[in-house]
Amino acid sequence: MLKYSFLIYHREYDDFLMKLRALGIVHIETLQESISEKAEEALKQLHKLSEAKKTLEQLEKPPIENLNLKTADEVLQKLNSLRNTEAQQEKRKKEIEIQLEVLRPWGEIPGKRLEQLNAEGVYLHFFECSKSRFDKNWYNQHALYIAQDNGKHVWFFIVDNDAAIPEIQAEYISIPQHSLATLLSEYEKVQHAIGKTETELHALASYTDLLSQAQLKLEEEMDWDNAMYNTYLHHDGKLQLLQAWVPVTQAEELNTLLENSGVAFTSEKPVVDDKVPILLKNSAFSKVYQPIGDLFSLPIYSELDLTPYFAPFFTLFFGMCLGDVGYGLIILTTVIVLRFTIKKPEIKPLLNLGIFLGGATVLFGLLTGTVFGIALATVNIPFLINLKDKFLDVDQLFNLSLIIGITQILFGMALRAINRWRMYGFAYALSPIGWILGIVGALMYAAHFQNLIALASIAIGLFLIIAFSNPDKGILGRIGTGLWDIYGITGLFGDVLSYIRLFALGLSSSILGLVVNSISLSLLGGVPVISQLLFLIVLLFGHGLNFGISTLSAFVHPVRLTFVEFYKNAGFIGGGKQYKPFKSKS
After folding, report:
1. CA 98: distance to chain centroid?
2. DSSP secondary-structure letter at 372?
3. Rounded to an integer, what distance in angstroms lies between the CA atom of residue 530 and that of residue 533?
4. Which of 84, 125, 536, 577 is most buried by a 10 A CB count?
5. Is 156 strand, coil or helix?
6. What's the pLDDT tens digit per position in 23-66?
7. Can you tell me the distance from the alpha carbon of 138 to that of 144, in angstroms, rounded to the nearest whole number?
């Protein structure tokens, strides 16, 4: 990136901004820590448009639209109005359903006749209770009449000269004012009104393009306002200063525009304290994993992007956690079919990621000899007899998890050394190098391999850690910081042990698959047809559940290992802001 500063006469400023927007390669430098009130209102409106668009995209578009709405504001107002109407209608529908539920056991109760009886001093009190709680002694105490008895519940009423509710162990029922027929009629009207409202809501689905256009227009206005808001005024506003960033590969295009416009400008390389926007340049393979890296943070401009370095490990981790040929083939088949059927370009990278992860699952399933929970090492198939000893067993998987963990941690430390060398100088790379030497030496010594060299490696590593943990400090400061860093070796043990989850998840997935198979097979041999049907249901449901849970775990835990263990040991700083060129969007 190159940093540009433009000095423009105020009467030419709008025209200059329009030219920059047409060029579409300049990222406006944000100089203000806060945003303007106008930008806040625009963000709120943008959120409303986005939410409305999501709602309408879920509705089926009608063949003909006849609402005759012209602007996005009209669409939003109509949508809010219909939502409120629908909420009120649903509320009234629920109220009627409750009243109908109360009235159904009693049938048609003449409300006016009840009022007449009350006026004459005769009161009917309605009750409901379970059959077991109904006390026949109530017949002797009250003028009690049963309206309905379904064997489980009893609905009855008591005729009394007292308006006070009799105290009995039953639930008092408050009879609705309206009759059953009136409520049923109103219920039908509410249902019809809800249907009409839903029809109008579906008609709004035709306006998603209008909302998209309004979104783009609003984003353009926000970008323009952002450029104006981050402009410095000089000489009573006669001169206006704007700072921006441009990729080095596109700087020539901007220079041509500036020379033709006669604008005064300077260009310079970024310094350490500059907040440079990030435009990543990754290979086709690394771009597939970029969405995973974006879940955490973009790197700052001066540090390495770790995406190309964690991508192979992430693929391996996923395969180890799921580790079943059958499940891998399901993933591969699904994403390949979707890749040729879904036309949205933003989905393609995720589908490509699915291909790599599915392939890794198949590969690791072959290494462990697992197909839908079936351990191939235990199956007597002629062509597999010579391969049984080749499959990885539990002990080998456990050791492999630890080896991979140590390898990734050391690789992360090597990246930290390279990154510090690039950013601050060679002295800052010596501490990570010391950690690498110390760990490698400790491993060699534990394996009784070249003990003298191992001890020398440990000694040199400790010296580098203590002496160069913070080269900016004096001798005592370096020693103190170095000793504190060495104390962090306890966390290093925890990091290595975290990789055991790769072994544990892979093992649990295969065991659950095996259990599903065992339960399913135990159902065979019973009643013909029914036993086979139950076998299929349990087999499909069990493997479907295991596949879903195991796939989710196989994604989540490698993400954790990447963002916690690997990023920490690689010294990832993060916090970069994405390169967003000032350009026309509509």
Report:
1. 39
2. T
3. 5
4. 125
5. strand
6. 889 998 887 666 777 778 888 888 888 888 888 878 777 765 56
7. 7
Residue whose C-alpha is closest to residue 313's, from 571, 563, 568: 563
**425 φψ region: left (φ > 0), alpha (ψ -120 to 50), beta (else):** left
Please report, for residues 215, 298, 307, 415, 439, the alpha-carbon distance to residue 421 in angstroms, rounded to integers and kept in the order given: 44, 20, 19, 10, 20
* The token pair that represents 1 in the structure block: 């990136």
pLDDT tens sequence across 437-449:
989 998 898 888 8
Planar angle of CA 572, 354, 370, nearest 5 degrees: 105
Residues in the chain: 586
Of 558, 541, 498, nearest in space to 322 by CA: 558
Confirm if 469 and 478 have CB atoms less than 8 A apart.
yes
For residues 505-511, give the mean pLDDT.
89
| Rounded-to-10 torsion of CA 32, 34, 39, 44 | 160
- Residue 286 tokens, joined: 């690394």
CA trace torsion 273, 24, 11, 6 (10° rounding): 30
Contact by Cβ (8 Å): 289, 312: no
Beta strands 27-28; 239-246: pairing state: antiparallel
Question: Closest Cα partner for 155 from 175, 141, 140?
Answer: 175
Q: What is the rounded end-to-end Cα distance, in angstroms, of the chain?
A: 26
Q: What is the pLDDT of residue 193?
A: 92
Cβ neighbourhood burial of 113 (10 Å; 0-12, 13-18, 19+): exposed
Q: Which two tokens stand for residue 456?
A: 């020398």
- Are 438 and 458 within 8 A, CB to CB? yes
> 270 — phi, psi (to 5°)?
-70, 150
Write the pLDDT tens digit of every residue in 477-492.
888 877 888 877 878 8
pLDDT reading at 362 higher than 90: yes
Closest C-alpha to 326, from 112, 540, 533: 540
Chain segment 124-141, per-residue pLDDT in tens: 999 999 998 999 899 988
> Span 344-361, mean pLDDT?
89
Cα(416)–Cα(570) distance, rounded to whole angstroms?
A: 5
Q: What is the pLDDT of residues 178-230, one digit of tens each?
A: 778 888 899 999 999 998 888 888 888 888 888 888 888 888 888 888 888 88
Q: 364 exposed, middle or buried (CB, 10 Å; 0-12, 13-18, 19+)?
A: buried
The phi and psi torsions of 42 (rounded to 5 degrees) equal -65, -40
- Per-residue tokens: 81: 């109005």
Tell me what the pLDDT averaged over the chain comes to.
87
- Which residues sit opposite 244 in a β-bridge? 4, 28
Calpha distance 277→1 (Å, rounded): 8
C-alpha of 394 from chain center: 33
CA distance 415 to 572: 9
For residue 435, the number of C-alpha atoms closer than 13 Å in the C-beta half-sphere is 27
pLDDT at 261: 82
Beta carbons of 100 and 184 less than 8 angstroms apart = yes
pTM for the whole thing? 0.76
Q: Which residues contact 499 (CB under 8 A, 6 or more apart)?
A: 401, 402, 404, 405, 408, 561, 565
DSSP 8-state symbol, 380:
-
